[in-house]
Amino acid sequence: MSQSVKNVAIVGATGQVGSQIVKYLLARNRFNVTAITRPESSSKPAEGVIVKTTDYNSHNDLVSALQGQDAFVISLAIGAARDAQTRLIDAATAAGVPWIFPNEWGSDNAHPVIADIPVNKPKHAYREQIEKSANSAWIGFVNNLWYEYSLGGGWFGFDIKNRTAKFYDDGNQKLNTSTLPQCGRGVAALLSLPVTTTDGSPSLSNYRNGFAYISSFFINQNDMLASLQRVTKTSPSDWQITKRPVDEAIKAGYDKVAAGEFMGMIDVLYGTNFKPGAGGDYGETKGLDNKVLGLPEEDLDEATSWAIDRAMKA
Predict the structure, then answer these.
(1) 40, 42, 142, 268: which is deepest, by most CB within 10 A?
(2) Which strand ranges, in their side-by-side order, compose the sheet holding 137-142?
(3) pLDDT tens digit string along 83-98?
């Protein structure tokens, strides 16, 4: 096995997190980045990316496209076919790709409460699939809920345009959350580590068949509201706040899902992360890899301004 990662393939190179991973891999000027794309895709990856147009339904085509890759990053949309990742992993292990980043990019799926959420349950099988192979290992990337994406999209309970917010309990429960750029920086830094070391210094092998944990902020909904007020130059009286018990919100979310409303999963996923002891505060309970990866401290209000831009364009 090579002592460094040079060739990195990615599925989802133009997506929310995939584009950021590509950006920061290219910025390091040490990786050959290949986007594995479907023939029908109209999205164009960033300049400098090698594009391999591949039939995702053809095992042989996928294996051929992944030959010679040191790492394979899988970033799929939530609506992707359930067997899509299975087929991608089958091809990557057959091609002998040593390192596979499965489609995690979210909460701490090592925590039993988080792992039991329906959108997270299938992820264990993908990790197990990789572990059973003779050629490959997985690294799960834990960044929790994307900050600017979630705040701007209303998933954290804020309607920025109408200046309303729905708090879980009193809005004081903190969680770890990451910006999309921090996710990109984190993956690029992780893949820049040597595969192994003999002096105990950080290496990629430290994360073999395990999770890497990063975060931009450790904050609660009140902190988010305060940042929104600073950036928008509004006062508390300009915002209408409602509160609901987190357990009640999670149950209501499950009820919606049972009734065929998939968006109920927002309250299940986000409510669980804001529930004390449920795993949303992994930085406090398990520690972070930010320092090992050399990740910068970020400015909360700047990230909030990105969220406001997203909300206003919606």
Answers:
(1) 142
(2) 50-53, 32-37, 7-11, 71-74, 99-101, 137-142, 210-213
(3) 999 999 999 999 999 9
